[in-house]
UniProtKB/TrEMBL annotation, chain A:
It comes from the Bacteria. GO terms for cellular component: membrane. The keyword Transmembrane helix applies. It is a multi-pass membrane protein. Belongs to the CcmB/CycW/HelB family. The chain crosses the membrane at residues 23-45, 57-76, 112-130, 137-159, 165-184, 205-225. This is ABC transporter permease. InterPro entries: Cyt_c_biogenesis_CcmB (IPR003544).
Protein backbone atom coordinates (compact mmCIF):
# COMPACT_ATOMS: atom_id res chain seq x y z
CA UNK A 1 0.00 0.00 0.00
CA UNK A 2 2.87 2.27 0.98
CA UNK A 3 4.57 1.43 -2.32
CA UNK A 4 1.41 2.28 -4.23
CA UNK A 5 1.01 5.67 -2.55
CA UNK A 6 4.66 6.58 -2.99
CA UNK A 7 4.66 5.52 -6.62
CA UNK A 8 1.55 7.54 -7.31
CA UNK A 9 2.86 10.73 -5.75
CA UNK A 10 6.25 10.38 -7.45
CA UNK A 11 4.47 9.79 -10.75
CA UNK A 12 2.36 12.90 -10.18
CA UNK A 13 5.51 14.86 -9.50
CA UNK A 14 7.16 13.59 -12.70
CA UNK A 15 4.16 14.53 -14.81
CA UNK A 16 3.85 17.92 -13.14
CA UNK A 17 7.52 18.70 -13.72
CA UNK A 18 7.23 17.68 -17.33
CA UNK A 19 4.04 19.67 -17.76
CA UNK A 20 5.72 22.80 -16.45
CA UNK A 21 8.82 22.65 -18.60
CA UNK A 22 7.68 20.37 -21.47
CA UNK A 23 11.36 19.95 -22.15
CA UNK A 24 11.60 16.19 -22.77
CA UNK A 25 8.35 16.12 -24.69
CA UNK A 26 9.05 19.03 -27.02
CA UNK A 27 12.66 18.05 -27.46
CA UNK A 28 11.90 14.50 -28.51
CA UNK A 29 8.94 15.55 -30.62
CA UNK A 30 11.15 17.94 -32.55
CA UNK A 31 13.74 15.18 -32.82
CA UNK A 32 11.17 12.83 -34.34
CA UNK A 33 9.78 15.43 -36.74
CA UNK A 34 13.19 16.45 -38.00
CA UNK A 35 14.35 12.85 -38.40
CA UNK A 36 11.21 11.94 -40.31
CA UNK A 37 11.61 14.98 -42.50
CA UNK A 38 15.29 14.25 -43.20
CA UNK A 39 14.39 10.66 -44.11
CA UNK A 40 11.53 11.88 -46.30
CA UNK A 41 13.76 14.23 -48.24
CA UNK A 42 16.64 11.77 -48.54
CA UNK A 43 14.54 8.87 -49.73
CA UNK A 44 12.62 10.98 -52.21
CA UNK A 45 15.82 12.08 -53.91
CA UNK A 46 15.31 8.82 -55.81
CA UNK A 47 12.31 9.31 -58.08
CA UNK A 48 9.64 6.62 -57.88
CA UNK A 49 10.70 5.51 -54.41
CA UNK A 50 7.19 5.23 -53.02
CA UNK A 51 6.15 2.93 -55.85
CA UNK A 52 9.16 0.65 -55.65
CA UNK A 53 9.19 -2.96 -54.54
CA UNK A 54 10.87 -2.65 -51.19
CA UNK A 55 8.82 0.38 -50.10
CA UNK A 56 6.78 -1.51 -47.50
CA UNK A 57 9.82 -3.05 -45.87
CA UNK A 58 11.65 0.27 -45.76
CA UNK A 59 8.53 1.99 -44.40
CA UNK A 60 8.30 -0.42 -41.48
CA UNK A 61 12.00 -0.71 -40.63
CA UNK A 62 12.60 3.03 -40.93
CA UNK A 63 9.78 3.78 -38.51
CA UNK A 64 11.21 1.46 -35.87
CA UNK A 65 14.73 2.79 -36.28
CA UNK A 66 13.45 6.35 -35.80
CA UNK A 67 11.44 5.25 -32.75
CA UNK A 68 14.47 3.45 -31.32
CA UNK A 69 16.69 6.50 -31.42
CA UNK A 70 13.93 8.84 -30.27
CA UNK A 71 13.21 6.66 -27.24
CA UNK A 72 16.88 6.30 -26.32
CA UNK A 73 17.09 10.08 -26.33
CA UNK A 74 13.87 10.58 -24.42
CA UNK A 75 14.53 8.02 -21.71
CA UNK A 76 18.25 8.67 -21.26
CA UNK A 77 17.15 11.95 -19.68
CA UNK A 78 15.02 10.32 -17.02
CA UNK A 79 17.85 9.72 -14.57
CA UNK A 80 20.47 12.03 -15.96
CA UNK A 81 18.52 15.22 -15.46
CA UNK A 82 18.10 14.53 -11.74
CA UNK A 83 20.55 16.51 -9.66
CA UNK A 84 22.44 14.75 -6.89
CA UNK A 85 20.75 16.65 -4.13
CA UNK A 86 17.29 15.96 -5.49
CA UNK A 87 18.07 12.22 -5.69
CA UNK A 88 19.20 12.41 -2.08
CA UNK A 89 15.86 13.93 -1.18
CA UNK A 90 13.94 11.13 -2.93
CA UNK A 91 15.94 8.54 -1.05
CA UNK A 92 14.88 10.03 2.22
CA UNK A 93 11.17 10.07 1.40
CA UNK A 94 10.52 7.02 -0.79
CA UNK A 95 11.54 3.41 -1.31
CA UNK A 96 13.69 2.33 -4.26
CA UNK A 97 10.90 0.28 -5.84
CA UNK A 98 8.59 3.30 -5.82
CA UNK A 99 11.22 5.41 -7.58
CA UNK A 100 11.98 2.95 -10.37
CA UNK A 101 8.28 2.06 -10.80
CA UNK A 102 7.25 5.70 -11.08
CA UNK A 103 10.02 6.30 -13.60
CA UNK A 104 8.97 3.27 -15.67
CA UNK A 105 5.29 4.25 -15.64
CA UNK A 106 6.09 7.86 -16.47
CA UNK A 107 8.30 6.78 -19.35
CA UNK A 108 5.61 4.44 -20.64
CA UNK A 109 3.09 7.30 -20.66
CA UNK A 110 5.54 9.67 -22.31
CA UNK A 111 6.59 7.13 -24.95
CA UNK A 112 3.00 6.09 -25.68
CA UNK A 113 2.07 9.70 -26.33
CA UNK A 114 5.20 10.37 -28.36
CA UNK A 115 4.91 7.27 -30.51
CA UNK A 116 1.27 8.03 -31.24
CA UNK A 117 2.27 11.48 -32.45
CA UNK A 118 5.27 10.00 -34.26
CA UNK A 119 3.20 7.52 -36.25
CA UNK A 120 0.78 10.31 -37.24
CA UNK A 121 3.64 12.51 -38.44
CA UNK A 122 5.24 9.56 -40.16
CA UNK A 123 2.05 8.72 -42.06
CA UNK A 124 1.68 12.34 -43.19
CA UNK A 125 5.09 12.25 -44.88
CA UNK A 126 5.31 8.63 -45.97
CA UNK A 127 2.33 7.34 -47.92
CA UNK A 128 0.36 4.97 -45.70
CA UNK A 129 0.62 1.31 -46.69
CA UNK A 130 -0.62 -0.35 -43.49
CA UNK A 131 -3.16 -3.11 -44.06
CA UNK A 132 -4.41 -3.43 -40.49
CA UNK A 133 -4.12 0.01 -38.81
CA UNK A 134 -5.53 -1.04 -35.42
CA UNK A 135 -3.08 -3.93 -35.10
CA UNK A 136 -0.21 -1.72 -36.24
CA UNK A 137 -1.13 0.89 -33.66
CA UNK A 138 -1.27 -1.77 -30.94
CA UNK A 139 2.17 -2.98 -31.94
CA UNK A 140 3.48 0.60 -31.78
CA UNK A 141 2.07 0.97 -28.26
CA UNK A 142 3.53 -2.38 -27.20
CA UNK A 143 6.82 -1.21 -28.64
CA UNK A 144 6.80 2.01 -26.66
CA UNK A 145 6.05 0.09 -23.46
CA UNK A 146 8.92 -2.33 -24.11
CA UNK A 147 11.35 0.47 -24.94
CA UNK A 148 10.40 2.28 -21.74
CA UNK A 149 10.86 -0.69 -19.43
CA UNK A 150 14.24 -1.66 -20.90
CA UNK A 151 15.71 1.83 -21.26
CA UNK A 152 14.65 3.05 -17.81
CA UNK A 153 16.79 0.49 -16.03
CA UNK A 154 19.68 0.92 -18.47
CA UNK A 155 19.55 4.69 -18.05
CA UNK A 156 19.72 4.23 -14.28
CA UNK A 157 22.85 2.09 -14.71
CA UNK A 158 24.40 4.47 -17.24
CA UNK A 159 23.74 7.54 -15.11
CA UNK A 160 25.51 5.89 -12.16
CA UNK A 161 28.46 5.09 -14.40
CA UNK A 162 29.20 8.69 -15.30
CA UNK A 163 26.36 10.03 -17.39
CA UNK A 164 27.63 9.52 -20.88
CA UNK A 165 25.58 8.86 -23.97
CA UNK A 166 27.97 6.32 -25.47
CA UNK A 167 27.58 4.05 -22.50
CA UNK A 168 23.80 4.28 -22.74
CA UNK A 169 23.92 3.16 -26.38
CA UNK A 170 26.43 0.37 -25.79
CA UNK A 171 24.52 -1.03 -22.83
CA UNK A 172 21.03 -0.73 -24.25
CA UNK A 173 21.34 -1.84 -27.88
CA UNK A 174 22.19 -5.50 -27.28
CA UNK A 175 19.30 -5.68 -24.82
CA UNK A 176 16.81 -3.97 -27.12
CA UNK A 177 17.67 -5.93 -30.30
CA UNK A 178 15.55 -9.01 -29.42
CA UNK A 179 12.64 -6.68 -28.62
CA UNK A 180 12.98 -4.76 -31.85
CA UNK A 181 13.26 -7.95 -33.93
CA UNK A 182 9.98 -9.22 -32.53
CA UNK A 183 8.38 -5.78 -32.98
CA UNK A 184 9.41 -5.51 -36.61
CA UNK A 185 8.05 -8.97 -37.33
CA UNK A 186 4.82 -8.16 -35.49
CA UNK A 187 4.28 -4.84 -37.23
CA UNK A 188 5.14 -6.35 -40.62
CA UNK A 189 2.34 -8.88 -40.07
CA UNK A 190 -0.01 -6.02 -39.20
CA UNK A 191 1.15 -4.13 -42.24
CA UNK A 192 0.43 -7.01 -44.57
CA UNK A 193 -2.97 -7.38 -42.90
CA UNK A 194 -2.34 -10.99 -41.89
CA UNK A 195 -4.61 -12.99 -39.63
CA UNK A 196 -4.45 -11.50 -36.11
CA UNK A 197 -4.11 -14.82 -34.33
CA UNK A 198 -0.67 -15.20 -35.95
CA UNK A 199 0.61 -12.41 -33.70
CA UNK A 200 -0.31 -13.85 -30.30
CA UNK A 201 3.04 -15.63 -30.07
CA UNK A 202 4.88 -12.34 -30.62
CA UNK A 203 2.82 -10.63 -27.92
CA UNK A 204 3.64 -13.47 -25.53
CA UNK A 205 7.37 -13.07 -26.15
CA UNK A 206 7.18 -9.29 -25.67
CA UNK A 207 5.16 -9.73 -22.51
CA UNK A 208 7.68 -12.25 -21.20
CA UNK A 209 10.64 -9.97 -21.95
CA UNK A 210 8.88 -7.03 -20.28
CA UNK A 211 8.02 -9.10 -17.24
CA UNK A 212 11.64 -10.25 -16.90
CA UNK A 213 12.97 -6.72 -17.32
CA UNK A 214 10.55 -5.12 -14.83
CA UNK A 215 11.15 -7.90 -12.30
CA UNK A 216 14.93 -7.61 -12.54
CA UNK A 217 14.67 -3.79 -12.36
CA UNK A 218 12.63 -4.00 -9.17
CA UNK A 219 15.07 -6.48 -7.68
CA UNK A 220 18.26 -4.72 -8.72
CA UNK A 221 17.44 -1.02 -8.35
CA UNK A 222 17.64 -1.11 -4.53
CA UNK A 223 21.30 -2.11 -4.91
CA UNK A 224 21.95 0.54 -7.52
CA UNK A 225 20.33 3.64 -6.08
CA UNK A 226 22.57 4.44 -3.13
CA UNK A 227 26.20 5.42 -3.57
CA UNK B 1 36.16 -22.43 -1.99
CA UNK B 2 38.50 -25.31 -1.17
CA UNK B 3 37.22 -26.93 -4.31
CA UNK B 4 39.26 -24.72 -6.62
CA UNK B 5 42.52 -25.75 -4.98
CA UNK B 6 41.88 -29.48 -5.31
CA UNK B 7 43.43 -31.39 -8.19
CA UNK B 8 41.18 -34.41 -8.80
CA UNK B 9 38.65 -32.61 -10.99
CA UNK B 10 41.38 -31.04 -13.10
CA UNK B 11 42.83 -34.49 -13.83
CA UNK B 12 39.33 -35.74 -14.54
CA UNK B 13 38.78 -32.86 -16.99
CA UNK B 14 42.04 -33.46 -18.87
CA UNK B 15 41.57 -37.23 -19.06
CA UNK B 16 37.98 -36.85 -20.26
CA UNK B 17 38.94 -34.27 -22.89
CA UNK B 18 41.68 -36.61 -24.14
CA UNK B 19 39.11 -39.42 -24.23
CA UNK B 20 36.67 -37.30 -26.25
CA UNK B 21 39.47 -36.31 -28.64
CA UNK B 22 40.46 -39.94 -29.31
CA UNK B 23 36.96 -41.36 -29.29
CA UNK B 24 35.61 -38.37 -31.20
CA UNK B 25 38.00 -38.71 -34.10
CA UNK B 26 38.22 -42.52 -34.21
CA UNK B 27 34.83 -43.68 -32.94
CA UNK B 28 31.97 -44.68 -35.17
CA UNK B 29 29.43 -42.07 -36.28
CA UNK B 30 26.24 -42.38 -38.32
CA UNK B 31 26.71 -41.60 -42.01
CA UNK B 32 24.38 -38.78 -42.87
CA UNK B 33 23.73 -36.77 -45.99
CA UNK B 34 25.43 -33.31 -46.09
CA UNK B 35 26.94 -33.75 -42.63
CA UNK B 36 29.18 -36.72 -43.39
CA UNK B 37 32.25 -36.64 -41.15
CA UNK B 38 31.62 -33.07 -39.98
CA UNK B 39 29.15 -34.56 -37.49
CA UNK B 40 32.22 -35.09 -35.31
CA UNK B 41 32.21 -31.32 -34.75
CA UNK B 42 29.27 -31.95 -32.38
CA UNK B 43 31.86 -33.10 -29.85
CA UNK B 44 33.57 -29.71 -29.97
CA UNK B 45 31.00 -27.10 -31.01
CA UNK B 46 28.24 -27.93 -28.51
CA UNK B 47 30.52 -28.42 -25.45
CA UNK B 48 31.96 -24.93 -26.01
CA UNK B 49 28.50 -23.48 -25.40
CA UNK B 50 28.04 -25.79 -22.42
CA UNK B 51 31.29 -24.49 -20.94
CA UNK B 52 30.17 -20.93 -21.66
CA UNK B 53 26.83 -21.42 -19.92
CA UNK B 54 28.58 -22.99 -16.94
CA UNK B 55 31.00 -20.10 -16.36
CA UNK B 56 28.38 -17.42 -17.10
CA UNK B 57 26.02 -19.03 -14.59
CA UNK B 58 28.77 -19.04 -11.97
CA UNK B 59 29.49 -15.42 -12.86
CA UNK B 60 25.86 -14.43 -12.23
CA UNK B 61 25.77 -16.36 -8.97
CA UNK B 62 28.83 -14.50 -7.74
CA UNK B 63 27.43 -11.17 -8.92
CA UNK B 64 24.37 -11.84 -6.76
CA UNK B 65 26.64 -12.85 -3.89
CA UNK B 66 28.64 -9.66 -4.35
CA UNK B 67 25.52 -7.50 -4.06
CA UNK B 68 24.69 -9.23 -0.80
CA UNK B 69 28.14 -9.38 0.74
CA UNK B 70 30.18 -6.58 -0.84
CA UNK B 71 33.28 -8.79 -0.80
CA UNK B 72 35.80 -7.84 -3.47
CA UNK B 73 36.67 -11.53 -4.05
CA UNK B 74 33.17 -12.25 -5.29
CA UNK B 75 33.44 -9.51 -7.86
CA UNK B 76 36.80 -10.89 -9.03
CA UNK B 77 35.26 -14.34 -9.49
CA UNK B 78 32.33 -12.84 -11.42
CA UNK B 79 34.53 -10.88 -13.81
CA UNK B 80 37.00 -13.69 -14.43
CA UNK B 81 34.15 -16.12 -15.10
CA UNK B 82 32.67 -13.59 -17.54
CA UNK B 83 36.07 -13.23 -19.25
CA UNK B 84 36.40 -17.00 -19.60
CA UNK B 85 32.83 -17.20 -20.83
CA UNK B 86 33.54 -14.66 -23.55
CA UNK B 87 36.56 -16.76 -24.60
CA UNK B 88 34.39 -19.89 -24.93
CA UNK B 89 31.75 -17.78 -26.68
CA UNK B 90 34.33 -16.93 -29.36
CA UNK B 91 35.38 -20.58 -29.62
CA UNK B 92 31.73 -21.63 -29.98
CA UNK B 93 31.17 -19.04 -32.69
CA UNK B 94 34.32 -20.07 -34.59
CA UNK B 95 33.62 -23.82 -34.47
CA UNK B 96 30.05 -23.07 -35.51
CA UNK B 97 31.18 -20.88 -38.40
CA UNK B 98 33.62 -23.48 -39.73
CA UNK B 99 30.88 -26.08 -39.52
CA UNK B 100 28.42 -23.74 -41.22
CA UNK B 101 30.89 -23.21 -44.08
CA UNK B 102 30.98 -26.90 -44.88
CA UNK B 103 27.29 -27.67 -44.38
CA UNK B 104 25.33 -24.47 -45.07
CA UNK B 105 27.82 -23.06 -47.57
CA UNK B 106 28.71 -19.77 -45.88
CA UNK B 107 30.55 -18.78 -42.73
CA UNK B 108 27.74 -16.40 -41.91
CA UNK B 109 24.38 -17.10 -43.47
CA UNK B 110 22.17 -14.61 -41.63
CA UNK B 111 20.74 -17.43 -39.58
CA UNK B 112 18.68 -16.39 -36.51
CA UNK B 113 20.77 -18.55 -34.20
CA UNK B 114 24.00 -17.01 -35.47
CA UNK B 115 22.61 -13.49 -35.26
CA UNK B 116 21.29 -14.01 -31.73
CA UNK B 117 24.64 -15.40 -30.66
CA UNK B 118 26.38 -12.35 -32.11
CA UNK B 119 24.02 -10.00 -30.23
CA UNK B 120 24.55 -11.91 -26.98
CA UNK B 121 28.28 -11.52 -27.61
CA UNK B 122 27.78 -7.74 -27.84
CA UNK B 123 25.91 -7.92 -24.53
CA UNK B 124 28.93 -9.35 -22.74
CA UNK B 125 31.31 -7.01 -24.56
CA UNK B 126 29.15 -4.19 -23.19
CA UNK B 127 29.63 -5.66 -19.73
CA UNK B 128 33.40 -5.55 -20.14
CA UNK B 129 33.28 -1.99 -21.57
CA UNK B 130 31.10 -0.90 -18.64
CA UNK B 131 33.76 -2.18 -16.25
CA UNK B 132 36.39 -0.12 -18.01
CA UNK B 133 34.22 3.00 -17.89
CA UNK B 134 34.19 3.24 -14.09
CA UNK B 135 37.34 3.94 -12.13
CA UNK B 136 36.18 3.59 -8.56
CA UNK B 137 36.55 -0.07 -7.57
CA UNK B 138 33.50 -0.60 -5.39
CA UNK B 139 31.22 1.37 -7.65
CA UNK B 140 32.52 -0.58 -10.65
CA UNK B 141 31.94 -3.87 -8.88
CA UNK B 142 28.41 -2.94 -7.89
CA UNK B 143 27.24 -1.50 -11.18
CA UNK B 144 28.77 -4.23 -13.30
CA UNK B 145 27.27 -6.89 -11.02
CA UNK B 146 23.87 -5.30 -11.61
CA UNK B 147 24.38 -5.24 -15.37
CA UNK B 148 25.60 -8.83 -15.32
CA UNK B 149 22.45 -10.02 -13.56
CA UNK B 150 20.35 -7.92 -15.94
CA UNK B 151 22.10 -9.31 -19.02
CA UNK B 152 21.97 -13.00 -18.13
CA UNK B 153 18.21 -13.60 -18.65
CA UNK B 154 18.37 -11.57 -21.87
CA UNK B 155 21.20 -13.81 -23.07
CA UNK B 156 19.11 -16.89 -22.32
CA UNK B 157 16.16 -15.42 -24.24
CA UNK B 158 18.42 -14.56 -27.17
CA UNK B 159 20.19 -17.87 -27.53
CA UNK B 160 17.64 -20.38 -26.28
CA UNK B 161 14.19 -18.88 -26.93
CA UNK B 162 14.12 -16.49 -29.89
CA UNK B 163 15.80 -18.75 -32.51
CA UNK B 164 13.30 -21.49 -31.73
CA UNK B 165 10.46 -19.24 -32.85
CA UNK B 166 11.66 -18.64 -36.39
CA UNK B 167 12.97 -20.61 -39.31
CA UNK B 168 16.53 -21.52 -38.73
CA UNK B 169 19.03 -23.80 -40.32
CA UNK B 170 20.45 -24.66 -36.94
CA UNK B 171 19.30 -28.00 -35.52
CA UNK B 172 16.75 -27.78 -32.74
CA UNK B 173 15.24 -24.52 -34.01
CA UNK B 174 12.30 -23.43 -36.12
CA UNK B 175 10.84 -26.92 -36.34
CA UNK B 176 14.15 -28.49 -37.31
CA UNK B 177 14.76 -31.64 -35.36
CA UNK B 178 17.46 -31.39 -32.73
CA UNK B 179 20.49 -33.54 -33.19
CA UNK B 180 19.62 -35.73 -30.26
CA UNK B 181 16.34 -36.97 -31.61
CA UNK B 182 17.12 -38.04 -35.14
CA UNK B 183 20.73 -38.08 -36.07
CA UNK B 184 22.57 -39.20 -33.03
CA UNK B 185 23.01 -42.76 -31.92
CA UNK B 186 24.23 -44.13 -28.61
CA UNK B 187 27.84 -44.32 -29.79
CA UNK B 188 27.82 -40.52 -30.11
CA UNK B 189 26.13 -39.95 -26.77
CA UNK B 190 28.92 -41.88 -25.07
CA UNK B 191 31.34 -39.22 -26.27
CA UNK B 192 29.14 -36.10 -26.24
CA UNK B 193 27.90 -36.16 -22.64
CA UNK B 194 31.36 -36.68 -21.12
CA UNK B 195 32.56 -33.86 -23.41
CA UNK B 196 29.95 -31.50 -21.90
CA UNK B 197 31.26 -32.17 -18.40
CA UNK B 198 34.92 -32.17 -19.42
CA UNK B 199 34.83 -28.83 -21.25
CA UNK B 200 32.76 -27.22 -18.50
CA UNK B 201 35.41 -28.30 -16.01
CA UNK B 202 38.15 -26.96 -18.28
CA UNK B 203 36.30 -23.63 -18.42
CA UNK B 204 36.02 -23.65 -14.67
CA UNK B 205 39.72 -24.40 -14.35
CA UNK B 206 40.70 -21.51 -16.60
CA UNK B 207 38.40 -19.21 -14.62
CA UNK B 208 39.83 -20.30 -11.28
CA UNK B 209 43.41 -19.81 -12.51
CA UNK B 210 42.58 -16.32 -13.70
CA UNK B 211 40.79 -15.61 -10.43
CA UNK B 212 43.79 -16.74 -8.39
CA UNK B 213 46.11 -14.48 -10.39
CA UNK B 214 43.73 -11.55 -9.91
CA UNK B 215 43.47 -12.30 -6.21
CA UNK B 216 47.26 -12.15 -5.82
CA UNK B 217 47.37 -8.88 -7.71
CA UNK B 218 44.55 -7.49 -5.62
CA UNK B 219 46.24 -8.46 -2.36
CA UNK B 220 49.51 -6.95 -3.51
CA UNK B 221 47.83 -3.70 -4.46
CA UNK B 222 45.91 -3.33 -1.21
CA UNK B 223 48.93 -3.82 1.00
Amino acid sequence: MELYKQTLSLLKKEILLEWRSKYAFNGVLLYVVSTVFVCYISFNLTPGFSGSNGYKIVWNVLFWVIMLFASVNAIAKSFMQESKSRLLYYYSIAGPQAIILSKIIYNILLMALLSTLAIIIYIIFFKNVVGDPLMYFISVLTGSISFSTVFTMISAIASKAGNNGTLMAILSFPVIIPVILVLIRLSKNAMDGLERSLNYGHFEVLFAINAIVVATSLLLFPYLWRD
Amino acid sequence: MKFIYQWWWKVLAVVTVLYTLVAGFLGGVPRLFILHETIRNTYFHVPMWMAMFTVFTISVIYSIKYLNSGKEEHDLIAVECANTGVFFFVLGLITGMIWAKSTWGEYWSNDPKQNSAAIAFLLYCAYLVLRNAIDEEQKRAKISAIYNIFAFPIMIVLIMVLPRMTDSLHPGNGGNPAFGKLDMDNRMRLVLYPAFIAWSLIGLWIATLRYRIRLIEYKQNTL
